[in-house]
Design a protein that fits this description.
Helices cover about 35% and strands about 5% of the residues. The protein is built from three helices and two strands, in the order H-E-H-H-E. A two-stranded antiparallel ribbon has the order 1-2. Helix 2 crosses helix 3. The longest helix has 26 residues. This is LysM peptidoglycan-binding domain-containing protein. Pfam families: LysM. Keywords: Membrane, Transmembrane, Transmembrane helix.
Length: about 130
């Protein structure tokens, strides 16, 4: 039978034959979910700011103007009681009125074929006399 020796603190005494295992080093920094989100936001902020400045400085390059446009059209005023069908027949008597009506609606960006008296409509160039 072997006898164990105890130290003054009540724990078994270590002999010179007992190997000492190294204690694994614990990480000093533990990132929580919120910490990872903050770190990601701080890392991404310069990229977002750089992209914002890049796009705002280059955003003004494309401006539209009608200075060199060679678009020719005429305005026609709708009479009282006149429909688009009657208007299409008077503008282009040899063309199919449905095609003329579709072109007028598309050219004037109308939501429907309803027109009212006094309304001015732009007529596409192919239907001008």
């Amino acid at each position: 039978m072997t006898t164990a020796t105890f130290s003054a603190s009540g724990y078994p005494a270590l002999s010179s034959r007992t190997p000492v295992r190294p204690v694994a080093a614990r990480p000093r920094l533990r990132l929580t979910r919120r910490g990872r989100a903050v770190l990601l936001a701080l890392a991404a902020a310069p990229l977002v700011i750089a992209a914002f400045f890049f796009f705002t400085l280059n955003g003004g390059g494309a401006t539209a103007s009608l200075d060199d446009a060679n678009v020719t059209f005429a305005y026609v005023t709708v009479d009282a009681g006149q429909s688009l069908w009657q208007l299409a027949e008077s503008i282009a008597p040899t063309a199919d009125p449905r095609e003329v009506i579709d072109a007028i609606i598309a050219f004037n960006n109308l939501g429907s074929a309803d027109v009212y008296a006094g309304q001015e409509l732009a007529i596409p160039v192919q239907y001008l006399p």
